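User: Can you help me understand a structure? I only have the sequence.
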Amino acid sequence: MPAALPQDVFERVIDFVADRETLCSCALTCRQWLPPSRYNLFYRTSIAGRTAFDALVRIRTAPHIASALENVHSLQLWEDKERPWLHLFPIIFPPRCLPRTFFLTLGEYIWDTQPLPRSFFLVCTQFDSVTTLKLSGGNFYSFSEFRKVVCAFKQLTRLFVDNAGWRIAPCYPQYSWSSPVPHLQLLWFNPAHRGAAQPLIEWLLCTPSMETLDDLQIREQDSSDVPAIQSLVKRLGSVLIHFQLSLKFWTRDNRINLSNNPSLRTLHVRDIDAESGRYLPYLLGQLSPSNLIHLTFYLRIPGLFELETLKSLWAEAAAILSGDDFSQLQMVTVWLLKVPPASVTTIPVLVDEIRSWMPVLDARSVLRVTPWMFLAN
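Assistant: Let's start by predicting it. Here is the structure, written out as tokens:
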């Protein structure tokens, strides 16, 4: 009989299995396959709802479950709005049960109507393994509680806030916000309501993140957010390396200047259309592009009139990009988020048209013009 394959070959193959149903089948195949299958099943764990939480509580002390929980690296916790349980999780499953969890997602929480107990914050301070936190689809009672949750994770370096916010804005002086944490390296902030960006930025300006934050994305909700974002990027200066911004709420007197950020390597410019495109030459003309290697644009072109308008506006921007200052640029990506109907033009024709706007870049850099995922006209 042929010799059995080494165990590390089985483990390597199972590591490439992404489908959870297939992993469950692998776990039931034989004893050799059980440990690597269980490891990958628990590597990314999601608990959605009170029923799943209660089931895990009942079996958490079983030896094979306890050892599997130690292998959890990414943990997603989704609140049950009918029977809330999220505030109990860190108390029932303390850090010693999840020593390797570095990515924690808290989703759909209702802490604006059910304030968090003090014990929640105290236990969270012991999760030293958590370096990435995602807050998704929920609201805090106040900005203070949001800040306390973020600061509870002492080793936090990456923060994602998606469609989240707070009911009560801060009502105390800015100097009281000074804090020894966090030391964020990445912040992607997509608030659920207007007016959320300004208190967040004012707090960040008083934290050590000003020395470490090199990847920034803040989705503006109105024009009042633009000056606050400008103050943040100006303060970050050469620390900022990756930045995403929107032209949606720009005006002649209310726009962002990136001349103080010479270390930028990637820049994503969102919400470019026939109206906001007039500010693109200003943005590019103020850049210090000596380190810029990847530039991405997100275009919305609903009709032929907008296409012709944007084409005329793009000429000045293309001339700036074709200059020697942008000679280090390696890639330019243009995403088409909205296109004219098929009765007007096809997507391949539109792609060729936009490529023709930047002939020098097409010859000097990698120029990619492509429709957004699942986009059709």
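Now, to help you interpret it: Residues 103 and 293 are 29 Å apart (CA to CA). The mean pLDDT is 90. Let me know which part you'd like to focus on.
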